[in-house]
Amino acid sequence: MSHAVENVPVPGTGTTPSQKRYLILAEEFSHDPHYAKTARGVMRYRREAVVAILDSKRAGETDDGVPIVGSVDEGLRLNPNTALVGIVTQGGHFPGDWQELLKTCVSKGLDLENGLHVRLHDIPGLPELAAQHGVDLRDLREPPSDLSTATGENLEVDATIVLTVGSDCAIGKMTATCELDLEARQRGLQSVFVPTGQTGIAIAGWGISVDAVVSDFLAGAAERLVVEGGKRGNLLWVEGQGAILHPIYSGVTVGLIHGSAPHLYVLCHEVGRTVVEGDPTGSPIVNLSELIDLHERMSLKLRPAKVACVALNTSGVSEQEAREAIGEAEEETGLPADDPVRFGAGKLLDAVLKVAP
Amino acid sequence: MSHAVENVPVPGTGTTPSQKRYLILAEEFSHDPHYAKTARGVMRYRREAVVAILDSKRAGETDDGVPIVGSVDEGLRLNPNTALVGIVTQGGHFPGDWQELLKTCVSKGLDLENGLHVRLHDIPGLPELAAQHGVDLRDLREPPSDLSTATGENLEVDATIVLTVGSDCAIGKMTATCELDLEARQRGLQSVFVPTGQTGIAIAGWGISVDAVVSDFLAGAAERLVVEGGKRGNLLWVEGQGAILHPIYSGVTVGLIHGSAPHLYVLCHEVGRTVVEGDPTGSPIVNLSELIDLHERMSLKLRPAKVACVALNTSGVSEQEAREAIGEAEEETGLPADDPVRFGAGKLLDAVLKVAP
Questions:
Q1: CA–CA dist B315, B172 (Å, integer)
Q2: Residue A55 CB: number of other CB atoms within 10 A?
Q3: Which of these three, A91, A117, A139, is where a domain ends?
Q4: Do A152 and B247 touch (CB under 8 A)?
Q5: Which domain holds residue B262?
Q6: What is the pLDDT of residues A321-330, one digit of tens each?
Q7: Residues A130 and A235 placed together within one structural domain of the fold
Q8: Nearest-CA distance from B175 to chain A in Å?
Q9: What residues form DSSP beta bridges with B34?
Q10: A215–B220: do the CB atoms touch at under 8 Å?
Q11: Residue A26 contacts B, CB cutoff 8 Å
Q12: Residues 6+ apart with CB under 8 A from B293
């Protein structure tokens, strides 16, 4: 696996992603599949940057070879330079005791990275403490202050741009994107994961949380991401958001489609899901063929994009049912389909590379 | 014309739109069709709320019966309660001498309304002066601070919702919307113009500038507008923004489509325009039939919307060419078409009412 293409300074910081040495803060939650979403994502896709995980309940254990420590002091022996908030909470707030934990990290000289809605900069006393100790506070959801409208530079990026889209939110678009990038990097390709949400940003160490951007600058933010991605490699996997027909988040989806100017889409769907999640109106999910046609016709007129393959999330069904669902999706769409987590991303990557410009 | 349905307090203020008595500030610009966009819009669609126009170069003249005055003091004799910034400038800044003009208005006890990007609240000394004189500063582009994601309440609004959409930005969507609303009010219908941009807000005295909203809350903002509109009447004309295939602003367009949950669309197009305006990439405009199909299929699954008619802006061609273009649009789409400014909005209103639920 080559990380050479990642040795580009992270905008707004002096360090490159590969210089990061993370202490992941997952106190009380490191075992929880839901709350530890960020910790798990970083452990799966950026394992090499993690030196320790903090969770006093599991101190002394290891996770994929990474020591789990019981205190910040214990973690410091492994020489981290950044503490990463590894949890995702309902409403995006910090759990009760976390403010003290964050202050401890800062006073021990660790930079802080946080993808929750609540900002580090809004925690009373923390910015002053950070200034005193000369450490950085990075709120990963905070958009850059100098965004503007899209300029057309997205069409000039010298890379193949692939965007994950889907039938709904929370169906595994980020995971499919990361798996495809990981598979491509393992094959030695100059592949880059382009993050558009807080967990993705925590995983990659750069990016913009596009749903936090003012609507006028949505496509501009997506454009900036692919321009930046083009400096890091020539095969860009842009993390999709929302869904083109999602009653709540479709604006973000379409802004991302036009701003990131993909050559190809990977269409994601969760087997068995028939109703849009988190939508109180119970809106039905339309079929894959209709989604393919809509995405292709909604693409930029100067960058007509095709769906290359279908990524299915089969985590809710048996292996036998998964294989049947994959066969059915291939029959319905005429495109290669697979579950990149369950069966590996090789088949989908092949499908993308076969039709890439 | 009945304004009874407008006698609802403007959210965040104690006054109803019809209690406004505007002094329109158009100093040096009242004759300019481009810069005086807001002044002209208010004069055309909310004439009854205007008591005077300030433009010292034309002092002593009248405009549609409204006196043009040379100074704020002169305007005060006509008993205005609000000074409205009537101009739209490149970049959204105030012209040189305007800060003094605004301070004069405030110190004479007038509320201020402003739709420019630069906020009244950011003009040094102005908020303090306003507090001292007990007047309100209203920045019309500033979104409400309590927005959230869409909830599905848009599907519960007890009104017919009509959204203007189009082949591009700046082709007359707001004008078509206002003309249809005006025609409907003149017929005695409980019709409401629902503004989604700063000029529309200045015209109607309420609304949300949806392009200034954080992307996550785009549909939520549009939903709030139709819920509010439903309290004011039962035939809502929602001002569209951008275009579904606009490389820069499509996110706003689609968020508005899903958040406002229209029953019907009015499709707007400017005769002769073939390339997206303000897009550096020179993206071509697709034909009307394709736009109709895309808008209908991109509508909410629980609120399938149809295009009711085509509103053409024929301002760039002769009357003969306009009539030909209208005939061609009707032939291509199979729908009624007309230019509501040039030939009146009656035909298009009939088309909408004929298919309204």
A1: 10
A2: 24
A3: A139
A4: yes
A5: 153-355
A6: 999 999 999 9
A7: no
A8: 21
A9: none
A10: no
A11: no
A12: none
